[in-house]
Amino acid sequence: MGNTLTVLVENNPGVLARVAGMFSRRGYNIDSLSVSTTDDPRISRMTIVVQGDEAVLQQVTRQLRKLVDVINVQDITKEPHVHRELILVKVNGDTTVRAEIMQIVEIFRARIIDVSQDSLIVEATGDAGKINAIEDALKHFGLREMVRTGKIALLRGGVTAVEYEEE
User: What confidence score (pLDDT) does residue 113 get?
Assistant: First the structure.
């Protein structure tokens, strides 16, 4: 599925563009990218999923560490971590199929977060396999719109991103 990097950066304008540009200049593709502020509003966490062998991963990590606003880079692929994705799906759902959609939503421990006369919006979280499966289960009703986050991840236990790199 790719290598999962967590990158702590200073929360400054242009940081995302510089990180994405570094990947682009070197011809590496980002499979998934999620960015948001941390508990400290001065710092953002990027979760980046990238394909490549060990040499590619080392090169990407070295190049990221050279960027001015980067505080910490770590590959957590093989470390114990928790990861999730989020999907929002607007699906056709008039009254004739709502019960069936509700059963699917229940099976996947998802939620219906909006209902209109002829559609529903479903929210689900989980690993990529679960997200793919609920998307497939809802497709035959007709997907009107869909959005997925990329992967987000945190190390398990009491270790934080900064402590991990210092070990």
Answer: 98
